[in-house]
């Protein structure tokens, strides 16, 4: 879904979201984040941070 959005809106970029959660371990290689109940004590959540460049 994110890849499709980036293709549809070329003035949009995917930004590294990991710095927004500095105290959360094991966020992966980024730039998006997948949170898991067994690792993070949360519901399973996905976070992609998008920014318009124009």
TrEMBL record:
Which protein is depicted? SAM-dependent MTase RsmB/NOP-type domain-containing protein
Q: Which family does it belong to?
A: Belongs to the class I-like SAM-binding methyltransferase superfamily. RsmB/NOP family.
Q: Which UniProt keywords apply?
A: Methyltransferase, RNA-binding, S-adenosyl-L-methionine, Transferase
| Keyword S-adenosyl-L-methionine tagged | yes
Against InterPro entries, the record matches this protein to: MeTrfase_RsmB-F_NOP2_dom (IPR001678), SAM-dependent_MTases_sf (IPR029063)
Q: Does the keyword Transcription apply?
A: no
Report domain SAM-dependent MTase RsmB/NOP-type positions: 1-53
């Amino acid at each position: 879904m994110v890849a499709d959005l980036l293709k549809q809106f070329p003035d949009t970029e995917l930004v590294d979201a990991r710095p927004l959660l500095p105290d959360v371990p094991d966020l992966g290689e980024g730039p998006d984040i997948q949170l898991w109940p067994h690792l993070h004590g949360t519901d399973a959540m996905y976070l992609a941070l998008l920014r318009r460049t124009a």
